[in-house]
Amino acid sequence: MSDASSSLRSDLPAPALRVLSRATRHTTPCGDGDLVWHTWGDRADPPLVLLHGGSGSWTHWIRNVDALAEAGRWVVVPDLPGFGDSARPPGGQDVDSVAPAVADGMRQMCGDAPVDIAGFSFGGLCGALIAAAQPERVQRLVLVGAPGLGLRSRRLPLTSWRDAPTEAEKLAAHRSNLATLMLYRDEAIDDLAMAIQAANVPRDRMHRRKLALTDLLLQTLPAIRCPLSAIYAEQDALYRDKMDELRALLEAAPTFEELVVVPDAGHWVPYEAPEVTNRELLRLLPV
């Protein structure tokens, strides 16, 4: 069994449950429990593995999975080890232990043929480590708002929700944190985003993560052999003042192909700009 305290499903709002109802649930071994996967679409279609961000779950891709499946991809989305409904990874508390567990599960889910990966934030760093360590497993990689380029060494100031005495104050903290880190436009912080945030963050059991604040991705890029592209938002709170530096670092990678900059969106660009994200993923990862 997973070591998550309870199923994420029990806390999800109705719109998320409707998306989940169209998925098939799978498990692969992970540490002392299971790595939980959800898939959308036809298994005969080319697989596209989506990796979510830190303190998240498959729901970081909630506005993308149906459209990508309808476009002819078998969409494969794990709750990364230590998040959502998945057990903690063996041997560590950061992305360097998450990546091998995901790669093992991905082989069981998708077989031996290489797959396309799109990784959002922490998931992008995870995907890069998989592509570098196991090049035969990854056909193409798209980084979406990924950290680890050495451009930021401090976390953004977030509001503590754990100490809030009432549910209303907890929700206020979640709203504040979405505005600080995840979403750019006020109207993007809607009821669904709030509910997803409130359901995801209590199930983050990887509290000692620090590698995203290092240059781990930058150091990994030269070892990636597959075609590499990236999608970043113009108003990403992590990079809005460093976009020129970000572009230069990515373009120096040996297999880098293209950087897509999405205007009027923040860090959680798959949620805030789903149509653009879906269109660009399908263009960058053609069948």
Give a structural overview.
The protein is an alpha/beta fold. It has one domain (about 10-285): 3-Layer(aba) Sandwich (Rossmann fold). The protein has ten helices and eight strands. The protein has helices at about 15-20, 65-70, 95-110, 120-135, 165-180, 190-200, 215-220, 245-250, 270, 275-285; strands at about 25-30, 35-40, 45-50, 75-80, 115-120, 140-145, 230-235, 255-260. It has an eight-stranded mixed sheet, with helices on both faces. Strand 7 (about 230-235), helix 8 (about 245-250) and strand 8 form a beta-alpha-beta unit. Helix 3 packs across helix 4 (about 120-135) and helix 5 (about 165-180) packs across helix 6. The protein is globular, with a radius of gyration of 17 Å. The model is unreliable at about 1-5 (pLDDT under 50). This is Alpha/beta hydrolase. It holds the Pfam family Abhydrolase_6. It comes from Ramlibacter pallidus. InterPro entries: AB_hydrolase_1, AB_hydrolase_fold, AB_hydrolase_sf, Epox_hydrolase-like.
Shape: globular
Give the helix tally.
Answer: 10
Structural class: alpha/beta
| CATH topological fold name | Rossmann fold
Total strands: the figure is 8
SSE series:
HEEEHEHEHEHHHEHEHH
Please state the oligomeric state of the protein chains shown: single chain
CATH class equals Alpha Beta
Helix content: 25-40%
